Amino acid sequence: MADNVTIDLNDFDISGSRVQVGITVRDFDHFKLRGRGGVIRNFLNAVQLYDSNNSLVEGVVFYNNDLSIYIQANYQSVNYSFINNNDFLFDRFTSVSISNSNRRFDTEVTGIIVWNNEFYFSGRGIELCRAKDSLIMENLVWGSETDGIQVRKSKFVDVYNNHVYDFEGRGITLDLTSYSEVKGNKVEYGDIGIQVDEATRFVSDACGGDSSIETNALNNISDNSLFNNDTGIVLGKDWTPNRTTANFNLIERNKIYNSRLGILFNLNTKQNVATNNAFQGTTTRVEDHGVRNRY
């Protein structure tokens, strides 16, 4: 395959047997996959894009794959991928996974846009790992088994105006992520609405890098509607009291309704600010186990 290739499914159905890969693109740029009613189903990985820039996946129906879209930087940077207006149904693990697996830190994942997609009953809807300057916006994630949207080890990522509904686990997670904004989202009927934490005890994991030098800092969690969750917003983990992993985050103007607990500051949180949040039908508004948090 060369640069500037377009695949137009045009109502065509591509089907596997759960052990193959549907489409693989490696080290070619400006790849476009347009669905126009087409379906990709029953693959281990439906679409794999490695070291490819300026990719577009648009208007495809993905059904019953283990992982539907997998974009990864291995040996060179990945920039400006656009995933728009796709439907994902019954994916076993993660529907969209975008990551930088290069542990030498000489590649980047930047300018990723995941916009206006619908996810139904996936293991996880969207995972963005070691990225920066990216946008996750106006997606519907319904019935995920773990996180609806997870941003890991990233910087300058905006998570705007998504709707995460009827999920197990966490609606939106920032995991060792800084300088990012979670704004205008509606998250309802799950365990935790939004969590800013360190999701793993391990020094390094599949994302690459050394988690001991990273933290969740200077994020803005604002103007979100968090309805009918057990807990609205959680910062930090309760098993890392000797290391701060959530500090200097701003939580403001969120609506937290009909929850057991509104905002939880765990042991490893420090100097976070929660202000002008609205609570209605919530049993306990704030529970604080951290240091110098303000609310």
What does this structure look like?
By secondary structure, the chain is mainly β. Helices cover 0% and strands 49% of the residues. The protein contains no helices and 38 strands. The protein has strands spanning 6-8, 13-15, 21-26, 32-34, 39-41, 45-50, 56-58, 61-63, 67-73, 78-79, 82-84, 87-89, 94-100, 109-110, 113-115, 118-120, 124-129, 132-137, 140-142, 149-152, 155-160, 163-165, 170-175, 181-183, 186-188, 192-197, 216-217, 220-222, 225-227, 231-235, 246-247, 250-252, 255-257, 261-265, 269-270, 273-275, 278-280, 284-288. The strands form 5 sheets. An 11-stranded parallel sheet has the order 1-4-7-11-15-18-21-24-28-32-36, with no helix packed on it. An 11-stranded parallel sheet has the order 2-5-8-12-16-19-22-25-29-33-37, with no helix packed on it. Strands 3-6-9-13-17-20-23-26-30-34-38 form an 11-stranded parallel sheet, with no helix packed on it. The mean pLDDT is 91.
